[in-house]
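Ops channel
N.P.: pipeline sanity check, posting one input/output pair.
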């Protein structure tokens, strides 16, 4: 029998990692009570806490075992930093500590975040500082964009994403993202792929509220010189707008909106599935042109929602060049298994091909059973 993999929250916070974390702190502060710290971390409420709640609980527990003056505690965490398990979720606790207890002490907190992010990203911890000190923090992040460590350069762009998943919202930057642009201008051709990816994710966030700013920025970069790296950034930055069929976005990736194709033989199987099941849909695309055509092929899933409402979500399929009169076969399996970021409901659903932003016929199917997924 195959053993079930541990839940994410169990693998990211476990006695071994907490023990290594406590050992690192004790190496910098010998009075630290490692055993007492671990015992209070894994209290009788631990099992019921979700991932973010677990990290905050660890942070608050740590506060009980460190000296009371914030600066004294921070010095201990900074001395211990080289021994924190790099890349682990528990190594985010010192940054969380800064965001929770150091918001009133900008002068020492920001250099500490610069240090801690080089073990694991401080992208969540900088956001309360951006809200409290918007101009000062954006000036700081522009400086970080020139930092020799790619971890710090990534923090400069990832930390100010307007819609960072799991991060607190930055409403001012949602409304006006122009303070972000000088940072992205410095980093879009960064030698580190992880920094360039962050630039693209930041622009994709911005595109959801200010698409024209993103389109103008990418066109400006494109006019300054093309490269494979920039082409990749453009595609990633525009993924939301491309799914929406935005003509300017499609033009930036070299795809026209006046595609000459015929979609036929659209079918879905089975037409009734249980909750947690999956459907397979397929269709043919026939090129009606005498010249090759670049096409972006997506599909729109029409979803049943709660209380009789409906919604849609676009999913990517592929991008390809159709030869003159070519007939392409497209097939995909869509699973309704529960995931943390989407809730499915029983009822009538449909799938609909979308090619270069144009919608074609749809085919319906029914999902039976009880709702599932996240709230």
């Amino acid at each position: 029998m195959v053993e079930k993999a541990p839940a994410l929250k169990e693998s990211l916070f476990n006695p071994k990692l907490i023990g290594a974390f406590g050992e690192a702190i004790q190496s910098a502060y010998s009075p630290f009570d490692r055993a007492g710290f671990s015992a209070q971390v894994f209290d009788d409420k631990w099992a019921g806490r979700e991932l973010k709640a677990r990290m905050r609980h660890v942070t608050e527990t740590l506060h009980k075992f460190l000296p009371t003056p914030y600066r004294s505690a921070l010095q201990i965490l900074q001395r211990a930093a080289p021994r924190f398990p790099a890349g682990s979720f528990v190594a985010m606790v010192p940054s969380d500590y800064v965001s929770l207890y150091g918001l009133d002490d900008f002068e020492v907190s920001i250099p500490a975040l610069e240090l801690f992010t080089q073990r694991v990203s401080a992208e969540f911890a900088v956001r309360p500082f951006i809200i409290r000190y918007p101009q000062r923090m954006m000036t700081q992040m522009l400086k970080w964009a020139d930092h020799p460590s790619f971890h710090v350069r990534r923090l400069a762009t990832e930390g100010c994403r307007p819609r960072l998943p799991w991060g607190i919202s930055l409403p001012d930057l949602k409304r006006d993202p122009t303070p972000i642009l000088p940072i992205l201008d410095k980093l879009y051709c960064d030698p580190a792929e992880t920094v360039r990816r962050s630039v693209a994710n930041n622009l994709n966030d911005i595109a959801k509220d200010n698409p024209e700013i993103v389109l103008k920025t990418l066109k400006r970069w494109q006019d300054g010189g093309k490269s494979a790296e920039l082409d990749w950034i453009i595609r990633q930055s525009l993924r939301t707008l491309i799914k929406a069929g935005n003509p300017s976005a499609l033009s930036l990736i070299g795809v026209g909106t006046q595609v000459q194709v015929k979609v036929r033989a659209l079918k879905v199987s089975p037409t009734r599935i249980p909750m947690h099941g999956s459907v397979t849909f397929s269709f043919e695309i026939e090129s009606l042109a005498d010249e090759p055509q670049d096409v972006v092929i997506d599909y729109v899933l029409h979803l049943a929602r709660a209380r009789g409402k409906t919604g849609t979500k676009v999913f990517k399929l592929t991008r390809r060049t159709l030869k003159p009169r070519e007939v392409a076969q497209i097939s995909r399996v869509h699973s309704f298994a529960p995931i943390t970021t989407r809730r499915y409901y029983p009822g009538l659903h449909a799938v609909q091909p979308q090619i270069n932003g144009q919608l074609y016929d749809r085919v319906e199917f029914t999902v039976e059973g009880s709702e599932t997924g996240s709230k």
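N.P.: looks fine end to end. The mean pLDDT is 92.
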